[in-house]
Amino acid sequence: MRVLLIIFFLFLSIFIPVSTQAKAIERVDLADVKAGDTLYFTHTKGTYIGNGRFLSKKGLVDIDLTDSYWIDSYVGLKRRSQSGSTMSQSQSMGSTLASRAISLIGTPYNQRGETPHDGFSTGSFVHYVYKDVTGSLLSKIPLRQKEAGTPVKRSELAPGDLVFFQGSSSVISGIYVGNQEFVIATSNGVAKRHLDRDSYYANSYVGAVRYSRDELRLSHPKTYENHEHPAVREAMRYIHTPYVLTGNTLAGFDCSYLIQMAFADGLDVHLPRITYNQWEVGLTVLDGKIDFKRQSLDDLIRPGDAIYFSNTWQPGISHVGIYLGQNYMVHASGDEGETTISYIASYWQERMTGAKRFDDLTLRLDHPVVQKASVLLGTPYVLGADEPETGFDTGSLVQYIYKESVGLDLPRFGSQQILTGVEVTEPETGDLLFFQGSSVIPAVYVGNGQMVVMTQLQGATIIDYKNSDYWAPRYIGARRVL
């Protein structure tokens, strides 16, 4: 009998394919965990779906695999065979998206809502589910969701795919969950509907898309955290910051302020505040829109370039984003209500003005006057003050910069400083510039059409005076004192 059993088990091990045999738990380092792995801990098990997300019996959980809690309780993992890993991971992701969508059934409808607490519109519902499960940032606008994904036939729909319908005024979107059913934010709240049995949706169906892992990667902030371009890395720090038109604080800001901050902090490039003024500086690498069916942006510009758009919320140049590659950009978007990553959909393609490269506008910190002026940026305006600890006014700032950087003693006031040195028609780095306000206002020219000047609202700041509606008409001359 024992011999027969041995022969039987030998038969199983030889003739049954390895892929159908139970796979043993492996002790793989947590740093090498991949999406699709089944992780085993002393207190739970589940499927790792990437980006710090773990699907267990309790639902979707955020886990930190570097935390001692998870490290100490880690037992091992099971990894599917390589041949089936891509399909299984895709199916796992789709099932998770479908499950999350179903879990939100009953959430109220709110055209402006973006959370389970506040409610959802159709677009914000899809955006929320995908962000919650994958960490990727789909648009909140259904038509743009449709353009960014890969079209899929209705007969090939799988859980997690997006389905689209023609609403009364625009396209609306939902998440397919299987068996011809989908979940969508209706006027009565988030609900499950049927592609055939619900006549409204059956008659208004306009297509479906699937987001591949690569497409999800392109809209995920972590993809760009270590990007080679400093302005891209800086912009990612502000993802989800609320959009506020004309806002200039970290509590909320607009598109041109994001560009201004990203280039200042990342490259020490100081750009004008207003979008159409930014367009006047730097190197033009693309002038005008392109035919996206025949040309690729990647062949014409590179990540880190700034893309400008016209006729968005107002006539003329009115929006800007930083190009990320493969038709994606990061921008402070009024439509999306925050700083986000967006596919450059047809809306943006039709309004493209061109692209600028600002990399060569970096301040010349090898020049002693420029270096000293740069470290004083942000120092507050205080009338009569004359040192960094207390502040400066217009004349004392210039006087201090030249004294501390090159040992040059200049008079105290702009009306006196304009009488020093030699008059020049084309200023060079380190020259003095003068403007007529209620009194003569001095400034330090730092190159690239920019100056460091003391202002009452911003303190010591950099301004592109040639493209400034305020400063350009007040310019009265330049003097060389070095």
Automatic annotation (TrEMBL):
InterPro entries: NLP_P60_dom (IPR000064), Papain-like_cys_pep_sf (IPR038765), Peptidase_C40 (IPR051202). One of its GO terms (molecular function) is cysteine-type peptidase activity. GO terms for biological process: proteolysis. Pfam families: NLPC_P60 (PF00877). It comes from Alkalihalophilus pseudofirmus (strain ATCC BAA-2126 / JCM 17055 / OF4) (Bacillus pseudofirmus). This is C40 family peptidase, poly gamma glutamate hydrolase. The keyword Hydrolase applies. The keyword Protease applies. Keywords: Hydrolase, Protease, Thiol protease. It comes from the Bacteria. Residues 91-212, 225-359, 363-482 form the NlpC/P60 domain. SUPFAM superfamilies: Cysteine proteinases. Belongs to the peptidase C40 family.
